[in-house]
Amino acid sequence: MPRSRTHAGPRYAVVWAVLNAELDRRGPAHVVDAGGGTGGFAVPLAQAGHRVTVVDPSPDALAALARRAAERGVADRITAHQGDADDLPGFIEPGTADVVLCHSVLEVVDDPARTLAAVAGVLRTGGCASVLVANRVAAVVARALSGHFASAQEALSGDLEPRRYDLDALSTLVTKAGLVPERWHGVRVLADLVPGAVVDVEPDAEEALVALELALAERPPYRDIATQLHVLARR
Ligand SMILES: C[S@@+](CC[C@H](N)C(=O)[O-])C[C@H]1O[C@@H](n2cnc3c(N)ncnc32)[C@H](O)[C@@H]1O
Questions:
Q1: For residues 130 and 14, what is the distance between their CA atoms, to the nearest angstrom?
Q2: How far, in whole angstroms, is CA 163 from its chain's centroid?
Q3: Would you state the pLDDT for residue 4?
Q4: Which of 81, 103, 105 has the most ligand 1 atoms within 8 A of CB, as the residue to mutate?
Q5: How far, in Å, is the centroid of ligand 1 from the Cα of 202?
Q6: Neighbour tally for 216: CB within 10 Å
Q7: Confidence (pLDDT) at 7
Q8: What domains are there in the chain, each with its CATH number?
Q9: Is 46:78 a contact under the CB 8 Å cutoff?
Q10: Does the C-beta of 44 come closer than 6 Å to ligand 1?
């Protein structure tokens, strides 16, 4: 996978590489960020020349988004609506968005199937959804590594809050929403396991870790143990 131009270090390098590849093929696009929060994705995308619509229920997050957008000089390219991702078609003309981001949101919504149906509903034919969720496997590993073995056992198959997903469950959800999963990625395969001091102290370590994350993202079994699972799914 090519190195991303716009990324926030090793944690999201893979997502940015995928988004940039998709958006580079299109030119200026209308991107919808469902649950876009404070604009960690929306603002850089606006800086890259795209028009971004953020829908998020949190007034605090939207206030932070507005400040960030103003600071970076892209307020005119971002439209923010306070609301639920399930109500996307009330804010965006159905069938018009080029790309819809749904990042770290399906863990907390009331009904993930309804949310993904709304995501699919605003996408134009040929447009794509970028869906990022927490990985159940990583929850099991993290709990075990911190000595919480019984809790790791529970995480194997129990209902968790916030929700965790595995590849099969996410694939079923995305497909039922009428989207076709195209590419799967592990996000933060190793980034969360490497001690921060190693990356901070070693020269060029961050760049090397980004390159490793990009190399591992699509390769099972590395992909499958990542902190988050990402799917690019097409309408
Ligand atoms: C973990 S943050 C992720 C923010 C952003 N998507 C990102 O990846 O940086 C979760 C966001 O989902 C928003 N959220 C919670 N429930 C939601 C819902 N029902 N519809 C849309 N967004 C929701 C929260 O307000 C918060 O901004």
A1: 12
A2: 15
A3: 52
A4: 105
A5: 34
A6: 20
A7: 54
A8: 13-134+162-234 (3.40.50.150)
A9: yes
A10: no
For residue 37 and ligand 1, the question of a CB distance below 6 A is answered with yes
Query: Which of 108, 109, 116, 163, when mutated, tests ligand 1's pocket best, judged by the most ligand atoms within 8 Å of its CB?
Result: 108
User: What does the angle CA 110 – CA 111 – CA 112 come to, to the nearest 5 degrees?
Assistant: 120
pLDDT of the residue at 181: 98
State the distance from the centre of ligand 1 to the C-alpha of 125, rounded, in angstroms. 25
Give the model's pLDDT for residue 114: 98
Please name the residue ranges forming H helices in 83-135: 88-91, 112-122
* CB contact set of 227 (below 8 Å; sequence gap of 6+): 134, 135, 138, 187, 188, 189, 191, 192
Measure the CA angle with vertex 212, ends 208 and 213; round to 5°: 120
pLDDT per residue over 142-188, tens digit each? 999 999 999 999 999 888 899 999 999 999 999 999 999 999 999 99
Dist CA 110 CA 188 (whole Å): 26
Q: What is the pLDDT of residue 178?
A: 97
Distance 22 CA to ligand 1 centre (A): 23
Note the pLDDT of residue 226.
Answer: 98
Ligand 1 contact, 103 CB (< 6 A)? yes
What pLDDT does residue 47 have? 96
In this prediction, the residues of the chain whose per-residue pLDDT falls under 70 are 1-8
Measure 14 CA to ligand 1 centroid, in angstroms. 20
